[in-house]
Protein backbone atom coordinates (compact mmCIF):
# COMPACT_ATOMS: atom_id res chain seq x y z
CA UNK A 1 0.00 0.00 0.00
CA UNK A 2 1.37 3.37 -0.96
CA UNK A 3 2.24 5.84 1.80
CA UNK A 4 0.20 8.96 1.10
CA UNK A 5 0.00 12.50 2.39
CA UNK A 6 -3.05 11.45 4.39
CA UNK A 7 -0.96 8.80 6.18
CA UNK A 8 1.65 11.46 6.91
CA UNK A 9 -1.01 13.80 8.21
CA UNK A 10 -2.41 11.14 10.54
CA UNK A 11 1.05 10.18 11.80
CA UNK A 12 1.89 13.82 12.36
CA UNK A 13 -1.34 14.40 14.27
CA UNK A 14 -0.85 11.32 16.44
CA UNK A 15 2.72 12.27 17.21
CA UNK A 16 1.65 15.80 18.02
CA UNK A 17 -1.20 14.76 20.28
CA UNK A 18 1.16 12.45 22.09
CA UNK A 19 4.05 14.87 22.42
CA UNK A 20 2.66 18.40 22.68
CA UNK A 21 1.10 18.02 26.14
CA UNK A 22 4.38 16.65 27.51
CA UNK A 23 6.47 19.36 25.88
CA UNK A 24 4.20 22.14 27.09
CA UNK A 25 4.16 20.66 30.58
CA UNK A 26 7.95 20.35 30.61
CA UNK A 27 8.43 23.97 29.53
CA UNK A 28 6.05 25.10 32.27
CA UNK A 29 7.75 22.98 34.97
CA UNK A 30 4.76 20.67 35.13
CA UNK A 31 2.41 23.49 35.98
CA UNK A 32 0.27 24.09 32.89
CA UNK A 33 -1.74 21.85 30.61
CA UNK A 34 -3.50 22.20 27.27
CA UNK A 35 -6.98 21.18 26.22
CA UNK A 36 -7.62 19.17 23.05
CA UNK A 37 -8.28 22.20 20.86
CA UNK A 38 -5.07 23.87 22.00
CA UNK A 39 -3.12 20.69 21.31
CA UNK A 40 -4.55 20.50 17.80
CA UNK A 41 -3.49 24.10 17.10
CA UNK A 42 0.08 23.29 18.01
CA UNK A 43 0.48 20.19 15.82
CA UNK A 44 2.63 21.99 13.30
CA UNK A 45 5.01 22.89 16.11
CA UNK A 46 5.97 19.30 16.80
CA UNK A 47 5.87 18.46 13.11
CA UNK A 48 8.56 21.09 12.60
CA UNK A 49 10.52 20.25 15.76
CA UNK A 50 10.71 16.57 14.80
CA UNK A 51 12.98 17.47 11.89
CA UNK A 52 15.28 19.77 13.90
CA UNK A 53 18.69 18.81 15.36
CA UNK A 54 17.21 20.02 18.67
CA UNK A 55 14.52 17.34 18.69
CA UNK A 56 16.47 14.43 20.24
CA UNK A 57 17.44 16.70 23.14
CA UNK A 58 13.80 17.60 23.76
CA UNK A 59 12.32 14.18 23.15
CA UNK A 60 14.47 12.31 25.63
CA UNK A 61 13.61 14.70 28.46
CA UNK A 62 9.87 15.08 27.89
CA UNK A 63 8.97 13.05 30.96
CA UNK A 64 11.74 14.33 33.18
CA UNK A 65 10.91 17.73 34.65
CA UNK A 66 14.21 17.86 36.54
CA UNK A 67 16.10 17.84 33.24
CA UNK A 68 14.75 21.30 32.41
CA UNK A 69 15.75 24.12 31.86
CA UNK A 70 19.11 22.66 30.86
CA UNK A 71 17.34 20.59 28.19
CA UNK A 72 16.09 23.74 26.48
CA UNK A 73 19.57 25.26 26.50
CA UNK A 74 21.11 22.19 24.90
CA UNK A 75 18.30 22.09 22.35
CA UNK A 76 18.96 25.71 21.41
CA UNK A 77 22.59 24.91 20.97
CA UNK A 78 21.74 21.96 18.71
CA UNK A 79 19.55 24.15 16.54
CA UNK A 80 15.97 24.97 15.58
CA UNK A 81 14.58 25.74 12.15
CA UNK A 82 13.04 29.21 11.67
CA UNK A 83 9.57 27.65 11.51
CA UNK A 84 10.17 25.95 14.86
CA UNK A 85 11.46 29.19 16.34
CA UNK A 86 8.30 30.97 15.19
CA UNK A 87 6.29 28.45 17.17
CA UNK A 88 8.78 28.51 20.04
CA UNK A 89 8.55 32.27 20.44
CA UNK A 90 4.75 32.21 20.57
CA UNK A 91 4.50 29.28 22.98
CA UNK A 92 7.19 30.59 25.31
CA UNK A 93 5.57 34.02 25.37
CA UNK A 94 2.24 32.46 26.26
CA UNK A 95 3.70 30.39 29.11
CA UNK A 96 5.66 33.40 30.40
CA UNK A 97 2.40 35.33 30.53
CA UNK A 98 0.71 32.57 32.49
CA UNK A 99 3.55 32.43 35.01
CA UNK A 100 3.46 36.22 35.41
CA UNK A 101 -0.29 36.20 35.94
CA UNK A 102 0.18 33.59 38.66
CA UNK A 103 2.95 35.60 40.35
CA UNK A 104 5.79 33.19 39.54
CA UNK A 105 8.02 35.94 38.21
CA UNK A 106 11.24 33.98 38.30
CA UNK A 107 9.84 31.37 35.91
CA UNK A 108 8.13 34.09 33.88
CA UNK A 109 11.43 35.88 33.37
CA UNK A 110 13.21 32.74 32.21
CA UNK A 111 10.52 31.94 29.64
CA UNK A 112 10.34 35.57 28.54
CA UNK A 113 14.06 35.60 27.83
CA UNK A 114 13.77 32.35 25.86
CA UNK A 115 10.96 33.85 23.77
CA UNK A 116 13.03 36.96 23.03
CA UNK A 117 15.95 34.77 21.98
CA UNK A 118 13.66 32.73 19.72
CA UNK A 119 12.44 35.88 17.97
CA UNK A 120 16.01 37.10 17.74
CA UNK A 121 17.05 33.88 15.96
CA UNK A 122 13.98 34.11 13.73
CA UNK A 123 14.64 37.66 12.59
CA UNK A 124 18.23 36.82 11.82
CA UNK A 125 16.87 34.71 8.93
CA UNK A 126 14.81 35.37 5.81
CA UNK A 127 11.79 33.69 7.37
CA UNK A 128 9.93 36.93 8.16
CA UNK A 129 10.43 38.14 4.61
CA UNK A 130 9.08 34.88 3.18
CA UNK A 131 6.22 34.96 5.66
CA UNK A 132 5.14 38.38 4.51
CA UNK A 133 5.38 37.22 0.92
CA UNK A 134 3.08 34.28 1.71
CA UNK A 135 0.53 36.41 3.53
CA UNK A 136 0.85 38.95 0.73
CA UNK A 137 -0.81 41.92 2.38
CA UNK A 138 -1.80 44.85 0.22
CA UNK A 139 0.23 47.57 1.89
CA UNK A 140 -1.03 51.08 1.20
CA UNK A 141 0.44 53.88 3.28
CA UNK A 142 2.30 51.45 5.49
CA UNK A 143 5.05 48.85 5.30
CA UNK A 144 5.35 45.38 6.77
CA UNK A 145 8.17 46.58 9.03
CA UNK A 146 5.65 48.90 10.69
CA UNK A 147 3.65 45.86 11.75
CA UNK A 148 6.63 44.08 13.32
CA UNK A 149 7.83 47.26 15.00
CA UNK A 150 4.34 47.68 16.38
CA UNK A 151 4.20 44.11 17.72
CA UNK A 152 7.39 44.48 19.71
CA UNK A 153 6.67 48.04 20.78
CA UNK A 154 3.37 46.84 22.23
CA UNK A 155 5.25 44.19 24.21
CA UNK A 156 7.52 46.88 25.60
CA UNK A 157 4.57 49.14 26.44
CA UNK A 158 3.00 46.30 28.36
CA UNK A 159 6.16 45.85 30.42
CA UNK A 160 6.44 49.57 31.07
CA UNK A 161 2.84 49.61 32.27
CA UNK A 162 3.56 46.67 34.61
CA UNK A 163 6.63 48.41 36.02
CA UNK A 164 4.80 51.69 36.53
CA UNK A 165 1.89 49.91 38.11
CA UNK A 166 4.16 48.04 40.51
CA UNK A 167 6.08 51.20 41.41
CA UNK A 168 3.02 53.34 41.99
CA UNK A 169 1.77 51.50 45.04
CA UNK A 170 2.81 52.46 48.54
CA UNK A 171 4.41 49.10 49.21
CA UNK A 172 5.56 48.17 45.77
CA UNK A 173 4.97 44.80 44.21
CA UNK A 174 8.63 43.90 44.13
CA UNK A 175 8.13 40.70 42.16
CA UNK A 176 6.21 42.38 39.37
CA UNK A 177 8.55 45.36 39.31
CA UNK A 178 11.63 43.20 39.15
CA UNK A 179 10.10 41.03 36.42
CA UNK A 180 9.06 43.92 34.19
CA UNK A 181 12.32 45.79 34.73
CA UNK A 182 14.43 42.68 34.09
CA UNK A 183 12.60 41.96 30.83
CA UNK A 184 13.13 45.53 29.64
CA UNK A 185 16.74 45.41 30.68
CA UNK A 186 17.27 42.18 28.72
CA UNK A 187 15.76 43.54 25.52
CA UNK A 188 17.64 46.83 25.92
CA UNK A 189 20.89 44.87 25.88
CA UNK A 190 20.09 42.77 22.79
CA UNK A 191 23.01 42.20 20.48
CA UNK A 192 21.54 42.75 17.04
CA UNK A 193 23.44 41.06 14.23
CA UNK A 194 23.97 42.19 10.67
CA UNK A 195 20.81 40.38 9.57
CA UNK A 196 17.74 41.88 11.17
CA UNK A 197 14.67 41.36 9.04
CA UNK A 198 12.60 44.54 8.85
CA UNK A 199 14.87 46.09 11.50
CA UNK A 200 12.54 44.53 14.03
CA UNK A 201 15.12 43.67 16.69
CA UNK A 202 16.75 47.07 16.43
CA UNK A 203 13.38 48.73 16.92
CA UNK A 204 12.52 46.43 19.79
CA UNK A 205 15.78 47.22 21.53
CA UNK A 206 15.27 50.96 21.03
CA UNK A 207 11.79 50.81 22.51
CA UNK A 208 13.16 48.97 25.56
CA UNK A 209 15.92 51.53 26.04
CA UNK A 210 13.34 54.28 25.85
CA UNK A 211 11.13 52.36 28.28
CA UNK A 212 13.95 52.07 30.78
CA UNK A 213 14.53 55.81 30.62
CA UNK A 214 10.87 56.49 31.20
CA UNK A 215 10.72 54.25 34.24
CA UNK A 216 13.92 55.74 35.62
CA UNK A 217 12.44 59.23 35.29
CA UNK A 218 9.30 58.19 37.11
CA UNK A 219 11.32 56.49 39.84
CA UNK A 220 13.60 59.47 40.30
CA UNK A 221 10.68 61.90 40.48
CA UNK A 222 8.97 59.86 43.16
CA UNK A 223 12.28 59.50 45.03
CA UNK A 224 12.86 63.27 44.98
CA UNK A 225 9.28 64.10 45.99
CA UNK A 226 9.45 61.72 48.93
CA UNK A 227 12.80 63.04 50.12
CA UNK A 228 11.55 66.63 49.94
CA UNK A 229 8.59 65.77 52.14
CA UNK A 230 10.36 63.46 54.57
CA UNK A 231 10.62 63.92 58.32
CA UNK A 232 13.92 62.23 59.14
CA UNK A 233 12.86 61.53 62.72
CA UNK A 234 10.04 59.31 61.43
CA UNK A 235 9.95 55.54 61.95
CA UNK A 236 12.38 53.19 60.25
CA UNK A 237 10.01 51.90 57.59
CA UNK A 238 9.05 55.39 56.54
CA UNK A 239 12.55 56.81 56.17
CA UNK A 240 13.93 53.70 54.47
CA UNK A 241 11.04 53.18 52.02
CA UNK A 242 12.11 55.55 49.18
CA UNK A 243 15.60 54.06 49.13
CA UNK A 244 14.51 50.44 49.31
CA UNK A 245 11.96 51.00 46.56
CA UNK A 246 14.57 52.50 44.28
CA UNK A 247 17.03 49.76 45.14
CA UNK A 248 14.54 47.09 44.04
CA UNK A 249 14.16 48.83 40.69
CA UNK A 250 17.86 49.30 40.05
CA UNK A 251 18.61 45.70 41.00
CA UNK A 252 16.68 44.71 37.87
CA UNK A 253 17.02 47.74 35.62
CA UNK A 254 20.66 48.66 35.06
CA UNK A 255 20.61 52.31 36.07
CA UNK A 256 22.09 55.12 34.04
CA UNK A 257 25.09 57.03 35.34
CA UNK A 258 22.89 60.09 35.82
CA UNK A 259 20.52 58.19 38.09
CA UNK A 260 23.37 56.64 40.07
CA UNK A 261 25.02 59.99 40.66
CA UNK A 262 21.75 61.65 41.62
CA UNK A 263 20.73 58.93 44.06
CA UNK A 264 24.15 58.64 45.73
CA UNK A 265 24.47 62.41 46.05
CA UNK A 266 21.00 62.80 47.56
CA UNK A 267 21.53 59.85 49.87
CA UNK A 268 24.75 61.30 51.31
CA UNK A 269 22.90 64.55 52.01
CA UNK A 270 20.13 62.62 53.72
CA UNK A 271 22.58 60.63 55.82
CA UNK A 272 24.06 63.90 57.11
CA UNK A 273 20.56 65.21 57.87
CA UNK A 274 19.68 62.08 59.80
CA UNK A 275 22.91 62.38 61.75
CA UNK A 276 22.12 65.98 62.60
CA UNK A 277 18.73 65.05 64.03
CA UNK A 278 20.36 62.32 66.07
CA UNK A 279 18.73 59.40 64.29
CA UNK A 280 21.87 57.84 62.84
CA UNK A 281 21.88 54.82 65.12
CA UNK A 282 18.43 53.74 64.00
CA UNK A 283 17.68 50.68 61.89
CA UNK A 284 16.24 53.03 59.31
CA UNK A 285 19.64 54.67 58.86
CA UNK A 286 21.28 51.28 58.41
CA UNK A 287 18.59 50.17 55.97
CA UNK A 288 19.19 53.26 53.85
CA UNK A 289 22.88 52.44 53.68
CA UNK A 290 22.16 48.82 52.83
CA UNK A 291 19.69 49.79 50.09
CA UNK A 292 22.00 52.24 48.33
CA UNK A 293 25.30 50.38 48.85
CA UNK A 294 24.91 48.38 45.59
CA UNK A 295 24.23 51.57 43.65
CA UNK A 296 27.24 53.26 45.18
CA UNK A 297 29.42 50.31 44.27
CA UNK A 298 28.11 50.49 40.67
CA UNK A 299 29.09 54.15 40.63
CA UNK A 300 32.51 53.29 42.06
CA UNK A 301 33.08 50.73 39.29
CA UNK A 302 32.18 53.29 36.64
CA UNK A 303 34.44 55.90 38.20
CA UNK A 304 37.35 53.49 38.40
CA UNK A 305 36.85 52.27 34.84
CA UNK A 306 36.81 55.82 33.55
CA UNK A 307 33.19 55.69 32.47
CA UNK A 308 32.10 58.30 35.00
CA UNK A 309 33.89 61.50 35.92
CA UNK A 310 33.74 64.00 38.76
CA UNK A 311 31.70 61.92 41.21
CA UNK A 312 34.53 60.38 43.20
CA UNK A 313 34.03 62.43 46.33
CA UNK A 314 30.35 61.62 46.93
CA UNK A 315 31.04 57.98 46.25
CA UNK A 316 33.77 57.99 48.90
CA UNK A 317 31.57 59.98 51.30
CA UNK A 318 29.03 57.17 51.17
CA UNK A 319 31.75 54.63 51.92
CA UNK A 320 32.74 56.62 55.00
CA UNK A 321 29.21 56.23 56.36
CA UNK A 322 29.33 52.53 55.54
CA UNK A 323 32.70 52.05 57.16
CA UNK A 324 31.66 53.76 60.38
CA UNK A 325 29.12 51.01 60.99
CA UNK A 326 31.67 48.21 60.59
CA UNK A 327 33.24 47.15 63.89
CA UNK A 328 35.75 44.56 62.64
CA UNK A 329 39.08 46.31 61.90
CA UNK A 330 39.83 44.30 58.74
CA UNK A 331 36.57 44.97 56.86
CA UNK A 332 36.41 48.49 58.26
CA UNK A 333 39.87 49.26 56.98
CA UNK A 334 39.00 47.68 53.60
CA UNK A 335 35.98 49.97 53.21
CA UNK A 336 38.02 53.12 53.81
CA UNK A 337 40.71 51.89 51.47
CA UNK A 338 38.04 51.35 48.81
CA UNK A 339 36.97 54.94 49.34
CA UNK A 340 40.56 56.07 48.84
CA UNK A 341 40.80 53.96 45.71
CA UNK A 342 37.80 55.80 44.29
CA UNK A 343 38.87 59.19 45.59
CA UNK A 344 42.58 59.36 46.44
CA UNK A 345 43.25 61.80 49.24
CA UNK A 346 39.65 61.77 50.51
CA UNK A 347 40.05 63.45 53.88
CA UNK A 348 37.49 61.54 55.91
CA UNK A 349 38.62 58.18 54.53
CA UNK A 350 42.22 59.00 55.44
CA UNK A 351 41.27 60.18 58.90
CA UNK A 352 39.12 57.18 59.74
CA UNK A 353 41.66 54.76 58.26
CA UNK A 354 44.34 56.37 60.41
CA UNK A 355 42.23 55.66 63.47
CA UNK A 356 41.91 52.01 62.50
CA UNK A 357 45.69 51.84 62.31
CA UNK A 358 46.18 53.72 65.55
CA UNK A 359 43.81 51.40 67.39
CA UNK A 360 46.24 48.55 66.65
CA UNK A 361 48.18 50.11 69.54
CA UNK A 362 45.34 49.77 72.05
CA UNK A 363 45.96 46.25 73.27
CA UNK A 364 49.77 46.43 73.58
CA UNK A 365 49.47 49.83 75.32
CA UNK A 366 47.12 48.43 77.93
CA UNK A 367 49.40 45.43 78.36
CA UNK A 368 52.33 47.74 79.04
CA UNK A 369 50.29 49.95 81.35
CA UNK A 370 49.28 46.97 83.49
CA UNK A 371 52.87 45.80 84.04
CA UNK A 372 54.10 46.54 87.58
CA UNK A 373 56.74 49.24 87.94
CA UNK A 374 59.10 46.59 89.34
CA UNK A 375 59.47 45.44 85.74
CA UNK A 376 62.03 48.20 85.35
CA UNK A 377 64.38 46.13 87.48
CA UNK A 378 63.99 42.98 85.36
CA UNK A 379 67.21 42.48 83.31
CA UNK A 380 65.54 40.87 80.30
CA UNK A 381 62.62 43.27 80.17
CA UNK A 382 63.44 44.63 76.70
CA UNK A 383 63.55 41.16 75.24
CA UNK A 384 60.34 40.27 77.06
CA UNK A 385 58.34 43.40 76.30
CA UNK A 386 60.16 45.04 73.42
CA UNK A 387 57.72 43.48 70.99
CA UNK A 388 54.86 45.38 72.60
CA UNK A 389 56.76 48.64 72.30
CA UNK A 390 57.47 47.83 68.67
CA UNK A 391 53.81 47.22 67.89
CA UNK A 392 52.76 50.48 69.46
CA UNK A 393 55.46 52.44 67.68
CA UNK A 394 54.50 50.84 64.37
CA UNK A 395 50.81 51.67 64.87
CA UNK A 396 51.63 55.28 65.73
CA UNK A 397 53.97 55.63 62.77
CA UNK A 398 51.42 54.02 60.44
CA UNK A 399 48.70 56.35 61.65
CA UNK A 400 50.91 59.35 61.23
CA UNK A 401 51.85 58.31 57.72
CA UNK A 402 48.18 57.97 56.74
CA UNK A 403 46.92 61.12 58.39
CA UNK A 404 49.40 63.26 60.33
CA UNK A 405 46.64 65.49 61.73
CA UNK A 406 44.98 62.67 63.66
CA UNK A 407 43.94 64.31 66.91
CA UNK A 408 44.59 61.23 69.01
CA UNK A 409 48.23 60.90 67.97
CA UNK A 410 49.66 63.16 70.70
CA UNK A 411 47.76 61.21 73.35
CA UNK A 412 49.08 57.84 72.14
CA UNK A 413 52.63 59.15 71.84
CA UNK A 414 52.44 60.50 75.35
CA UNK A 415 51.14 57.24 76.75
CA UNK A 416 53.91 55.29 75.08
CA UNK A 417 56.60 57.64 76.26
CA UNK A 418 55.28 57.45 79.79
CA UNK A 419 55.47 53.64 79.79
CA UNK A 420 58.91 53.62 78.28
CA UNK A 421 60.14 55.83 81.07
CA UNK A 422 58.33 53.92 83.77
CA UNK A 423 59.59 50.54 82.60
CA UNK A 424 63.07 51.66 81.51
CA UNK A 425 62.34 50.70 77.89
CA UNK A 426 63.77 53.80 76.19
CA UNK B 1 -7.40 39.43 23.04
CA UNK B 2 -7.75 36.04 21.30
CA UNK B 3 -6.10 35.55 17.96
CA UNK B 4 -8.80 34.93 15.32
CA UNK B 5 -6.62 32.51 13.38
CA UNK B 6 -6.00 30.38 16.46
CA UNK B 7 -9.58 30.60 17.67
CA UNK B 8 -11.04 29.44 14.38
CA UNK B 9 -8.24 27.10 13.35
CA UNK B 10 -7.76 28.95 10.08
CA UNK B 11 -4.49 29.07 8.11
CA UNK B 12 -2.83 32.46 8.75
CA UNK B 13 -1.44 32.48 5.23
CA UNK B 14 -4.87 32.52 3.59
CA UNK B 15 -5.74 35.45 1.37
CA UNK B 16 -8.66 37.73 2.19
CA UNK B 17 -10.73 35.98 -0.44
CA UNK B 18 -9.94 32.53 0.99
CA UNK B 19 -10.63 33.72 4.52
CA UNK B 20 -13.95 35.16 3.48
CA UNK B 21 -15.02 31.90 1.83
CA UNK B 22 -13.98 29.73 4.74
CA UNK B 23 -15.45 31.98 7.39
CA UNK B 24 -18.65 32.38 5.43
CA UNK B 25 -19.10 28.60 5.47
CA UNK B 26 -18.30 28.54 9.19
CA UNK B 27 -20.91 31.22 9.87
CA UNK B 28 -23.49 29.31 7.85
CA UNK B 29 -22.84 26.18 9.92
CA UNK B 30 -22.78 28.08 13.22
CA UNK B 31 -24.94 26.53 15.90
CA UNK B 32 -26.11 29.81 17.39
CA UNK B 33 -26.43 33.51 16.69
CA UNK B 34 -23.70 34.22 19.24
CA UNK B 35 -21.32 31.91 17.40
CA UNK B 36 -22.21 33.50 14.08
CA UNK B 37 -21.57 36.99 15.47
CA UNK B 38 -18.29 35.82 16.91
CA UNK B 39 -17.17 34.53 13.51
CA UNK B 40 -18.28 37.75 11.84
CA UNK B 41 -16.38 39.76 14.41
CA UNK B 42 -13.25 37.75 13.70
CA UNK B 43 -13.81 38.19 9.96
CA UNK B 44 -13.88 41.97 10.41
CA UNK B 45 -10.73 41.85 12.51
CA UNK B 46 -8.92 40.04 9.73
CA UNK B 47 -10.21 41.76 6.65
CA UNK B 48 -10.91 45.41 7.41
CA UNK B 49 -7.26 46.40 7.61
CA UNK B 50 -4.47 44.55 5.87
CA UNK B 51 -1.89 45.48 8.47
CA UNK B 52 -4.10 43.90 11.13
CA UNK B 53 -4.32 40.71 9.09
CA UNK B 54 -0.53 40.57 8.85
CA UNK B 55 -0.18 41.21 12.57
CA UNK B 56 -2.66 38.52 13.57
CA UNK B 57 -1.11 36.13 11.07
CA UNK B 58 2.36 36.55 12.51
CA UNK B 59 1.10 36.15 16.06
CA UNK B 60 -0.76 32.93 15.21
CA UNK B 61 0.79 29.50 15.15
CA UNK B 62 1.65 28.36 11.62
CA UNK B 63 -0.85 25.73 10.53
CA UNK B 64 -0.17 22.30 9.06
CA UNK B 65 -1.01 21.76 5.39
CA UNK B 66 -4.67 22.37 4.49
CA UNK B 67 -5.11 18.64 3.73
CA UNK B 68 -5.02 17.88 7.46
CA UNK B 69 -8.33 17.79 9.24
CA UNK B 70 -8.40 18.88 12.87
CA UNK B 71 -9.53 15.75 14.62
CA UNK B 72 -7.57 12.54 14.65
CA UNK B 73 -10.76 10.57 13.97
CA UNK B 74 -11.38 12.54 10.80
CA UNK B 75 -7.80 11.97 9.72
CA UNK B 76 -8.15 8.25 10.40
CA UNK B 77 -11.25 8.10 8.25
CA UNK B 78 -9.47 9.93 5.48
CA UNK B 79 -6.62 7.41 5.32
CA UNK B 80 -7.22 4.94 2.41
CA UNK B 81 -7.53 1.29 3.41
CA UNK B 82 -7.12 -1.98 1.47
CA UNK B 83 -9.25 -5.19 1.98
CA UNK B 84 -7.53 -7.85 4.05
CA UNK B 85 -7.44 -11.29 2.42
CA UNK B 86 -8.45 -14.31 4.51
CA UNK B 87 -5.51 -16.61 4.91
CA UNK B 88 -5.67 -20.30 3.92
CA UNK B 89 -3.01 -22.89 3.63
CA UNK B 90 -2.04 -23.00 0.00
CA UNK B 91 -2.90 -26.34 -1.71
CA UNK B 92 0.19 -28.40 -2.58
CA UNK B 93 -0.38 -30.44 -5.75
CA UNK B 94 1.52 -33.70 -5.81
CA UNK B 95 2.26 -36.36 -8.38
CA UNK B 96 -0.30 -38.57 -6.68
CA UNK B 97 -2.97 -36.10 -7.67
CA UNK B 98 -2.08 -36.82 -11.26
CA UNK B 99 -1.74 -40.60 -10.82
CA UNK B 100 -5.08 -40.85 -8.94
CA UNK B 101 -6.91 -39.25 -11.80
CA UNK B 102 -7.38 -36.06 -10.03
CA UNK B 103 -8.86 -37.45 -6.81
CA UNK B 104 -8.29 -34.84 -4.22
CA UNK B 105 -9.70 -36.48 -1.18
CA UNK B 106 -12.66 -35.28 0.87
CA UNK B 107 -11.30 -31.81 1.41
CA UNK B 108 -9.66 -30.01 -1.43
CA UNK B 109 -8.08 -27.58 0.89
CA UNK B 110 -6.44 -30.07 3.24
CA UNK B 111 -2.83 -30.74 2.40
CA UNK B 112 -2.34 -33.87 0.30
CA UNK B 113 0.07 -36.43 1.68
CA UNK B 114 3.52 -36.19 0.27
CA UNK B 115 4.98 -39.13 -1.59
CA UNK B 116 8.22 -39.96 0.06
CA UNK B 117 9.15 -42.74 -2.27
CA UNK B 118 10.62 -40.80 -5.09
CA UNK B 119 13.43 -42.87 -6.49
CA UNK B 120 15.91 -40.68 -8.14
CA UNK B 121 17.67 -43.52 -9.74
CA UNK B 122 14.65 -44.24 -11.89
Keywords for this structure?
heterodimer; B: mainly alpha; disordered C terminus
Question: Any overview of this molecule?
Answer:
The complex is a heterodimer of chains A (426) and B (122). Chain A is mostly helical and 426 residues long. Chain A has a domain at 360-423. In chain A, 73% of the residues lie in helices and 0% in strands. Chain A has helices at 5-27, 36-41, 43-49, 55-59, 70-78, 82-101, 105-123, 127-135, 144-168, 174-188, 200-229, 236-252, 257-276, 283-304, 312-324, 329-342, 347-358, 362-369, 381-402, 409-423. Chain A is elongated, with a radius of gyration of 32 Å. In chain B, helix 2 (16-29) packs antiparallel against helix 3 (33-47). Chain B has a domain at 4-65. Chain B is elongated. Chain B is mostly helical and 122 residues long. Chain B contains 6 helices and no strands. Chain B has helices at residues 4-8, 16-29, 33-47, 50-58, 72-78, 95-99. The interface between A and B is large, with 42 and 31 residues.
How do the helices and strands line up, and which of them pair or pack?
The complex is a heterodimer of chains A (426) and B (122).
Chain A: H1 5-27, H2 36-41, H3 43-49, H4 55-59, H5 70-78, H6 82-101, H7 105-123, H8 127-135, H9 144-168, H10 174-188, H11 200-229, H12 236-252, H13 257-276, H14 283-304, H15 312-324, H16 329-342, H17 347-358, H18 362-369, H19 381-402, H20 409-423
Helix pairs in contact in A: 1-3, 3-6, 6-7, 7-10, 9-10, 9-11, 10-11, 10-12, 11-12, 12-14, 13-14, 13-15, 14-15, 15-16, 16-17, 17-19, 18-19, 19-20
Chain B: H1 4-8, H2 16-29, H3 33-47, H4 50-58, H5 72-78, H6 95-99
Helix pairs in contact in B: 2-3
What percentage of the residues of chain B does DSSP assign to strands (E)? under 5%
Estimate the mean pLDDT confidence of chain B.
75
Number of helices of chain A: 20
Structural class of chain B: mainly alpha
Uncertain residue ranges of chain B: 102-110, 113-122
Distance between the termini of chain A: 113 Å
How many strands, what sense, and barrel or not for the largest sheet of chain B? none
Low-confidence stretches of chain A: none
Q: What is the residue-averaged pLDDT of chain A?
A: 92
Could you give a short account of the major beta sheet of chain A? none
Radius of gyration of chain B: 33 Å
Amino acid sequence: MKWTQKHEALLSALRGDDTIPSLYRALSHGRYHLDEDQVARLRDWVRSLATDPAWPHLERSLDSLTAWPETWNSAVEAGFSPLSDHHNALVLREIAGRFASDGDYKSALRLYIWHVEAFQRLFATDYPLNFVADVDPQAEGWEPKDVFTGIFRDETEDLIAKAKDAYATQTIDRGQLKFAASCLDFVAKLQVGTTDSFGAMTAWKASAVSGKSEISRIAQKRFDDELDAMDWTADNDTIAAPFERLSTLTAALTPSEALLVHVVTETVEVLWKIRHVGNDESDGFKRILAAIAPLNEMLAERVLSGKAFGHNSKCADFMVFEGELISEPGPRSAKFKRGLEVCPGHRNCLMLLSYVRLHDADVPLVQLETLPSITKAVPGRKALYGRLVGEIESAIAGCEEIFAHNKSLPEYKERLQKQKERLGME
Amino acid sequence: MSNPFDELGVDPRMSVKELTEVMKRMAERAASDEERERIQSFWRMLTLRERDRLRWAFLAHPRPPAAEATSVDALREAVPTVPVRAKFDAPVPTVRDCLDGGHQGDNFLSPAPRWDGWDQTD
